[in-house]
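Structure request: 5-formyltetrahydrofolate cyclo-ligase, Enterococcus aquimarinus.
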Amino acid sequence: MLSKKQLREQGIRALKKLANHPALKTKKEQQILTFLFASQQWKTSDTIAVTKALEFEFDTGKVIQRALSQGKKVVIPKSLPERKLAFYEVDEDTVYQRTQFGVEEPISNLIVTKEEIDLIVVPGLVFSSKGYRIGFGGGYYDRYLAHYQGRTCSLVFAEQLNNEWTNEPLDVAVERIYTDSYKMKEATQ
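Returned structure:
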């Protein structure tokens, strides 16, 4: 069995390979977004938390645009000391700054509490069919999700699905995975 580090590297390679085929990546994203936007999770959520994706990741820009066009509140995280996250409200005019990890974070003081967030679109590199994920290794999301009571989902390419690993006790599964894989449409716990 591969280590989390090896799986993380494998996940990044798979995403970068897919990014080298923009037409295919866009087609897969559209398919996944169709499932997300048709879901009750999406329709019943007024405040959506989502990251600004790296170039090779799932393009979350379409999620942000759709949410704003539907009058939903969009919140994007900033990383804080002690591997913590805080989410800040954004709009079309928000300015972003790039972190040392290459992630764009909003320049905003409009902090939003966990209790105000209806749905968090959780990023990751590798996902199991039970909704567990391997991210970039900081543990930021697992810490945040440990005390979060709202809904969660992830937008996952078939290339990111892998059940050949065991989650750890502090890992927090997402409720729902939206994917272009016909093998798995919903995370079951």
